[in-house]
Model the fold of this input.
Amino acid sequence: MARYAADYSLPHQLYGCVKYADYPHAEILNIDISEALKINGVEAVLTYKDVPGENRFGLIPNIRILADDRTRYLGDAVALIAARTIEIAKQAARHISIKYHKLPDVIDPRESLKEETIKIHEEGNLVVHHKVLKGDIARGFKQSVHVIEQDFSTPAIEHAYLEPEAALAYPDEQDGIAVIGCLQNIYTSHKVIAAALNLPLAKVKIIQSTMGGSFGGKDEASTLVAARAALLAVKTKRPVKIVNSREDSMIQSYKRHPYYLNYRWGCDQDGRLLAMQHDIIADSGAYCSMTPFVTWRSVVQAAGPYRCPNVKTDVRGVYTNNNYTGAMRGFGSPQVNVAIEIMMDKIAEKTNKSPLEIRLLNGFGDGAVTATGQKLSHDVSLKQVLTIAAEKSDFENKWRQNRSKENQSAPVSKGIGLSCSYRGVSLGAEGVDAASAVVHVQPDGSINVSSGIIDMGQGAQTALAQIAAEVLGVSMKRMRFLEPDTTRVADSGPTVASRGTIMGGGAVKIAAEKVAELIKEILAEKHKIRKESLLLKNEKIETKSGKRVCTFTDAVKLCYAKGTPLFANGVRYIAETDWNEKTGRGNAYFTYVYGANVAEVEVDRETGKVNVTRFISVHDVGKAINKSMVEGQIYGGIAMGTGYAIMESFIQESGMAKTINFDEYYIPTALDVPQMESFIVENPDKHGPFGAKSIGEPALEIVAPTIINAIFNATGKHIYNLPASLEEVLLGKKLRRDVERGSLSCKPEV
Amino acid sequence: MKNFKYIPAESLEKASQKKDDSVLMAGGTDLLGMIKDDLLTPETVINLKSLKELKNIRYNAGKGLEIGALATITELAENSDVQKRFPVLVQTCKEIASPQLRNVGTVGGNLCQRPRCWYYRGEFNCLRKGGDTCFAVDGENKFHCVVGGGPCYIVHPSDLAVSLLALDASLEIFSNGKLKTVPIDDFFILPEQNETKENILEPGEIVTKIIVPEIPAGSKCAFIKFKERASWDFAVVSLGILLNTNGSTIKNGRIVFGGVAPRPWIDTALNTKLTGAATDEKNLKSLADSALLEAEPMSKNDYKIILVRNLLKQALIDLSKN
Ligand SMILES: Cc1cc2nc3c(=O)[nH]c(=O)nc-3n(C[C@H](O)[C@H](O)[C@H](O)COP(=O)(O)OP(=O)(O)OC[C@H]3O[C@@H](n4cnc5c(N)ncnc54)[C@H](O)[C@@H]3O)c2cc1C
Ligand code: SF4
Done:
C-alpha cells in the first residue's frame, strides 16, 4: 500500500505551519513573536535568526528558508511555528506582528530590467541572459521575401500534483535528523537541510515517501517544507510534521515560467527560412529556482527543428515579485514551442503551403545542423513522425475542407492543427549528467533494484526493474524496487528532463551487467566453459549453442556458496556535450527525440468555447521499454497540454494569488480531455538502455500550439496569448483592466 | 478553523431559536468550506438533516411540485415526477458541481449558498464581510457581475435559483414560529439593499420548502449554463427560459439570467418585449441583442454580455421550433 508523506506520524509529534509575508515586496524591520509564544500549546516560533546554518539556497543561492532582509513574494515564510495542534499553530501565526517598510512591487517582467525599476536582489533584476548566434541575421532578413513578426505570451501555470507537499522530520537516536518527504530531488534536499541545520551530511537522512505526482514541482517547493520541518524538529527535539493544504501549496510553490516572446522570421518566396530572430523574457518570480536551466533549454530550442542559416536568440530571465518559477514538465520548451509552431503556420499561410508542406520543407533531416551548430548524428525522424501524424489523421484533406467559408462562418467551426518538435534528451550541457543504481541479487534469487531516480507516478520503478530483469534473463516476479534513500544510493542527480529511463535505466543496466558477469565467471569456472559462451535467459543459464547449464536460482546459490555476493553498483555518465555560453554554440544535448501532434477542435463562435475533439500524438521514443507506460505518458501529456492551451492560468494580482484551489484554478476534467490516440516510433539510440530515449516531456511540449493551430484552421484567427480562454477566442483579446467602468463597448451597434 | 459545537436540530422551533453565534447546516458542502477558511467562526453548528420531514419531494397534479428544502440535488434529479413534469429542473441539477457534491448538497442549501467572489473567499475584508472596500472594482473581476452591482459586485452562484425563478417558484419559510410563503423573486436581494447578504432571511429563519407551480400547458423550458470547464464549475453565465409560442409569435414567456448579477436576474425591458414578438430568426436575433442593455460591465467582464446574447439567441431559436 502506498504511504505518502502525510500518512506518516510519530508519537509526541508537533504540527508546523508558516507565517506568510503580508506584502509581496517589503523590508522586514522587526518581527515580534512574543504574543505567539504565550499561546498555550505553542512549542517553538522561529525566524531567520534561529537558522543555525545556511538560510539561503538554490542555483543562485537566494531562496530563503525564512525571509530575512525582505519579503519578495506573498508565499514567503517570515516565521515558523510548531504547536501541539495545527489549529494552535495557525492561531499563533496570527499573533506574530511584523513591522515592514513597504517597497514598490515589480509585477510585469517586461518592466523588471528598466533602469528606474527597484532592484529585488542586490545583484540586480537579471537572473540570466542566454544567447545563440548563427550566421548573419541582418543579411538573412535582407535576402528574405517575406518577414513576419509577432508577439506571444504564455501564462504561469500550476503543476497541480494530486498530493500537496508534506514532510515529517524527527531527531534520530544519534543526534542526527531524519526527514520523510515527497521530494523530487532528494540529493539537493539533503544538502540544503544539512547546511541549514549546520550538520554534516552523514547526520541527515532523507527518506523518500511515495510521491503523489510532481511534474517537476517537488524540488525547491518540497525542500522548503522539509527544511522547515527539520528546523522545528531540531529546535523542539520532537518530531514535527508539516502538511501543506492545497491553498498553502498554491501560494508557496513555484510555477511554470510565464514568457513574453517576440519572434521575427524571414523566408524566401517558397517559405524556406532565411532568418530567425527571437527576443524572450522569462518571469523568474521572486527567486532563482531553475531559471538558468529552463531558459537555457529555451535558447537551444527556440528555433525549433528547422533548418535556417541565420539565427539570433536572446532569452532573459528576470526577477519580479510574483511566485517564483521553476522546473515543470517541458522545462522551457512548451513556451517557445507555442511561438515556433504558430509562426510556422503563419509562414505556411503567407506562402500558400499547408502546415505539413512547410514543415517538411524546413524540417531537420539526417545530419542536419541545429541553431547552435550541432550536427545531428542519430536517426533524425522528424519527417517520419510528421508523415505518420498527417496520415493517421487525414490531415491534408481535413485542413483544406475546414478552410471553406461555410465552415469558418458556421456557428460551430471545425479545425485541425499540426505541430512538431525536437527535444534534447536529459540535462545536456546544462549540468553533470550522471546517475547511479544498485542491483542486489539476494541469496534466494530475489532481486532488489535501487536507483536515485524517483518514481513520481510515472512508472520509473517498473521500467528500471524491467531493464534489470531483461539483462539477468529473469521474470519481473523476482524484482523489488527500493525507494531511494540518501544513505543507500549515490547522487543520481534530479529525476528531471525526461532522463529517468535513459540515465537511471542506463545505470541499472550497467549494474545488472556486472552482476551477470559475476554469475558467468563462477559458472564458467565450475563447468570449465568459456564465460563468453554463457547466456542468461528465461530464468536459466545456457550456452550459446542452447545447452542448459542450470537454473538462475541454482546459479545464485552457487555464487553465494563460493563467497561471491551478487551485488553491483552502476554509474551511467555521458560526457558528449559541450557549450560555449559566450557564443551560444555547441553540442547542447547528446541526443534528441522527435514528435508530431495533430489536434481536431470544434470552436463555438458564439461563445468562444473550444472543444478539443480528437488528438493524435506520434513520438519517436528510441525504444519503448514498457509500451503501456509510454502510452500513459502520452495521454497524460495531452491532458496537461490541453489545459495549457485552453484554460489554465495562475492569476495573480499585485503578487496576490487569486486561484488557490481547483474551484478557481481550472485544470481539465475527464470531460474536457479529447479522444486520444498514440503512435510509437522506434529508432533505437546508442546512448539509451536497449536504445530507449525519453517520452515524459516530449508528450506535453507541443500539445498547446497544436490546439491553437487547429483553432486558426477553424476560425481563420490566430491566438497569440495563452490560454485560448473564452474572451480570447470570442473577443480576440484578453480583457484588460484599463477599460472604463460602465463602458459602452458592448452595446450593440445601432 | 475554530472548534465548534455540533448539534442535530430537534425540531424546526428549536433550530430557529438560533443565537447570533450559531449557524444552520444542511449538506454542509458550502458551509463547511466557509468554516474551514475561517469566513465563519460559529460557536454552534445546527444540523438540519435530522428534520426528516424537510426531505420530501411531492407532486400534486394541478397544484405543482413541493420540494423539501433538505432534499438533495441528486434526489431532485432522480425523482420520477420531476423527470416527467419538470425536465428543466433535472437539466439544471445535472449542471451543478459534481455528482459527489450533488449527493450531499441540498436544494435549500443551493439557494442559500454564499457567493464565490475570490476576494470574499480569500483574506480580504471586503464590503460583504463588513469592511469598507469592494476589491473587485479595481481588481480581477472577470467573473463578477455586469448588472445590478454596487456597492458589491458578486454574481449569485446558484443554478437552481435561475430555473426556479423562470418557473415562478415560491419558498416556504419558517419564521418566528410561523410559516410564510414568499415568491422566489422577492427572496433574493441586491447589494444596494444590503451588501452583507444575498436574500431576505433573518437569523433563525429556515427555508422549509420550494413550491413550483405546474408548467403552463404548451410552454417549453430550458436551462443553459455556460462554464469554462466541462464539470465541477460554476456558471460563467446561464439562462433559464420558459416560452409559450403559437407558430409565428410568442404568446408569453420569461427569461432569467444567471452569472450576470448579484441575484438571478430578470431583465424587465427584455421580458416585456416577449409577448407578441414574432418568432422569425431575424426578430429573435434582435430580441436577443436587446438583452442587458442597461448592463455596466466592469473592466474585465464585458465578454459576458456577448455570451448572454449569443446563448439567448440560440435558445430562442431552438425553443420556437416545433
Ligand atoms: C466545488 C463546488 C462546486 C460547485 N458548483 C456549483 C454549481 O456549478 N452550481 C451551483 O448551483 N452550485 C454549485 N456549488 C454549490 C453547491 O451546490 C452548494 O454548496 C450546495 O447546494 C449547498 O447545499 P448544502 O446542503 O451543502 O448547503 P450548506 O453548505 O449546508 O449550507 C449553505 C448555506 O445555506 C444555509 N442553509 C442551508 N439550508 C438552509 C435552509 N433550509 N434554510 C436556511 N438556510 C439554509 C446554511 O446556513 C449555509 O449558509 C458548488 C459547490 C462546490 C463546493
Ligand atoms: S464583489 Fe462583493 S464580495 Fe467581492 S470583493 Fe466586492 S464587496 Fe466583496
About this structure: Chain A is about 30% helix and 25% strand. The pocket of flavin-adenine dinucleotide (ligand 1) is lined by residues A 663; B 23-31, 33, 48, 69, 96-97, 101, 104-106, 108-110, 112-114, 157-160, 201, 206-207, 232-234 (CB under 6 Å). Chain A touches chain B through 41 residues (CB under 8 Å). Residues 500-527 of chain A form the longest helix (28 residues).
